[in-house]
Design goal:
six-stranded parallel sheet
Length: about 210
């Protein structure tokens, strides 16, 4: 059985954990405060989940999910994530992360910053443009009319393929933006950010996005 190692147990991390367990994945989840602080979440998730340190979650992961503030990605366990598919849920909030000139100028993306931090990991953008609560409530069977769509981006075909399959399992269509360098199209303050949209609407919103919103 596939194990998701989730680094970050906030709103998105906890919801991805709930969705993953519900669809038969094992979950190892970490936060910055220590495994003992996740007891209530683990009790809710059941036998398929356990709490760990970030390094332990990364080591246990077949697929990792990084869902921590952008300003803290330099704390990630690089060696334990080497060679692994890593889903990046991040957005740039300068109010929280401080100003990052390269992002302010449109010279890079949050996912490219993560790729730089994890040079041998295989990064794909995922779950950054949906409200956390909707991850477990807005899914619908494949082929449903007006099925909600989510975007991904990545330079690694296997990473993008996993996100596409995982989205489908959770009830969402996928729109592939392309490489990580194009992932800005679905980041904060762009038309596709945290709105409900089907695949056609998502493609249209991606197309009209401005690099510097």
């Amino acid at each position: 059985m596939t194990t998701l190692g989730i680094i970050g147990a906030g709103h998105i991390g906890s919801q991805v954990a709930r969705a993953a367990v519900a669809h038969g994945y094992d979950v190892v989840i970490a936060n910055s405060r220590g495994p003992e602080t996740l007891a209530s979440l683990i009790a809710e998730l059941g036998d398929r989940a356990r709490a760990a340190t970030a390094a332990e979650a990364a080591a246990a992961a077949d697929i990792a999910v990084v869902t921590i503030p952008l300003g803290r990605i330099d704390e990630l366990p690089v060696d334990e994530l080497a060679g692994k598919i890593v889903l990046d849920t991040n957005n740039y909030y300068f109010e929280r992360d401080g100003r990052i000139e390269a992002l302010d100028k449109g010279e890079t993306t949050t996912s490219e910053l993560l790729q730089r931090q994890l040079p041998t990991s295989r990064i794909a953008k995922a779950f950054n443009h949906i409200m956390a609560r909707d991850i477990t409530t807005d899914g619908a069977p494949a082929g449903s009319e007006n099925r909600r769509a989510l975007a991904t981006a990545g330079d690694d075909a296997d990473a993008v393929e996993f996100v596409t399959r995982f989205y489908d399992e959770l009830g969402f269509d996928t729109v592939n933006i392309g490489p990580l360098s194009e992932s800005w199209r679905v980041e904060r303050d762009r038309p596709a950010y945290v709105v409900r949209q089907n695949a056609e609407e998502l493609r249209a919103n991606l197309a009209i996005a401005n690099r510097l919103p």
